[in-house]
Amino acid sequence: MLKLRQLLMIALMTLIGWTANAQNWQLVWADEFTNGIGPDWVFETGTGSGGWGNNELQYYRQQNATVQNGELVITAKNESFGGMNYTSARMKTQGKKSWKYGKIEARMQLPAFQGSWPAFWMLGDNITSVGWPSCGEIDIMEQTNTSDHVLGTIHWNNNGYVYYGGNTAASVTGYHVYSIEWDANAIKWFVDGNLYHTANIQNGINGTSEFHEKFFIILNLAVGGNLPGNNVNNGALPASVKVDYVRVYQSTGGGTGAPVGQTIWLRGSNGLYASSENGAVPMNCNRNSVQGWEQFTVVSAGGSKIALRGSNGKYVSSMNGQSGMMCDRTTVQGWEAFDWVSNANGTISLRGNNGLYVSSENGQSPMICDRTTIQGWEQFTWGTGAGARQAPELDSELSEPVALTVFPNPVTNHEFKVRWDHQVSPEVQLSLMDVSGKTVYTAVAKDGLENVVLPSHLRKGVYILGITSEKGTETRNLIIK
Predict the structure, then answer these.
(1) How many Å apart are CA 326 and CA 309, to the nearest integer?
(2) Cβ–Cβ < 8 Å for 285, 270
(3) Can you tell me the distance from the alpha carbon of 257 to that of 259, in angstroms, rounded to the nearest whole number?
């Protein structure tokens, strides 16, 4: 059980592999702020340049961000520090985590006092090289002063600074889920799942190419500045933004993202299939029919990355781009991670960790990951082999050790189903662990399908479900609503 507990804790820390709902969003990263602030946040401190470019009045300190009752609390205070009359906190995932496309959301409660400016927003990874606004900015939620409206805006450079935004009414001092859904065509803003604004970014229209790159997340509470003005209600301080969670999802299929958990076949633009061979020789795209060696499983490689696992159970590596790609790695590291890039006409391309694209060449030479742009030889079709699916049957499906599927997820009424390959393992052990690491439920399940009714006293929140057989242990993040 110690090994199982360790595996469950690792799963809890990574929070990867849970499907957000029965549609097409899979959770790839989250901070639930249950016992502290996660390791992927970096704090910005001081006054920045020109009040962080906005003439803000506070000095940002890490001490102003705490976790209380399972929530992140960012507190603005009326206190002198570093030559400023106010303090607060600003935190970001820059250099730790960033994403291209997805659903990004946070459940928050705002303070709404004169002079307040809370924000949940994103900046492009390339800000250090191109600066702002050329890096692009996505404001998922901003609110100022005592306004009962929240703002959703993008900022970018189109031969000069431009922005486009919308707003909607919200009782901001109550809890709400603020989110965007972002893909190659548009960015959409929601409050509690209700759409209120859309920005078209398809094909980089109006210079919006910035929004087809990776962005990192920022949370902060400013005092004063260009947007709210510098009239501050000191009597309202201290005041806090409370954040229940921040979650990032990415698409699990339907042609808009990597089909994590599915068996796929890659067919090059020459009509021939990629083969993993036996892992000892470079991969080729020279098979005219689909057999075992042309079969791959798509698995999560962390963040927004995916990995390809061949039918020999080994992972595809792009090496360094100078030699042929191999399917001979037993673990997923940098060279085994790919971006899944959707192209026109239902084709996809694979971009390696070196930023270069996989090319099928002419099928006579090994496949390599050394192209800087997408042309014919960098495009593949997928899901065309015998038995392949265009979408998972139920939520997320991974292939080993027991193809664990959990549905519905989130769980309502404390009841859900667990499905696995009973031919692989006719009997399994189920274990549910809360965020503190305590096992709160165990059961023995048989015959490949189990209807689970959890104790009604279990609180809402994130749990880890582990399923153990003689093949090993597989885990899923489970949300109880």
Answers:
(1) 11
(2) yes
(3) 6
25-251 is classed CATH 2.60.120.200:
yes
Architecture of domain 263-382: Trefoil (2.80)
Task: Note whether 375 and 349 are within 8 A (CB).
Answer: no
CA atoms within 13 A on the CB side of 304: 28
- Give me the residue spans of the domains in the chain: 25-251, 263-382, 405-480
Rounded Cα–Cα distance for residues 89 and 100 (Å): 26
Instruction: Name the catalytic one among 137, 361, 397, 474.
Output: 137
Lowest mean pLDDT among 95-99, 240-244, 305-309: 305-309
CA-based R_g, the chain, Å: 24
Distance CA 142, CA 120 (A): 7
Determine contact, residues 389/456, Cβ cutoff 8 Å. no
* Total H helices, total E strands in the chain: 2, 38
7, containing H or E segment? helix 2-14
Residue whose C-alpha is closest to residue 462's, from 26, 31, 6, 96: 31
Give residue for tokens 């930023």: 355
137 is catalytic: yes
pLDDT digits (tens, 9 = 90+) for 326-355: 888 888 888 888 888 876 556 788 988 887
Going by C-alpha positions, the residue among 474, 467, 409 that lies closest to residue 26 is 409
The 10s digit of each residue's pLDDT in 192-214 is 988 999 999 988 899 999 999 99
- The CATH class given to the 405-480 domain equals mainly beta
Active site residue 142: yes
Tell me which of 32, 105, 142, 397 is the catalytic residue: 142
Q: Is residue 480 helix, strand or coil?
A: strand
Q: In this predicted model, which residue has the larger pLDDT, 111 or 379?
A: 111
Q: Is residue 146 scored above 90 in pLDDT?
A: yes
Distance, in Å, from the CA atom of 433 to the CA atom of 11, rounded to the nearest integer, reads 10
Is residue 407 within 8 A of residue 449, CB to CB? The reply is no
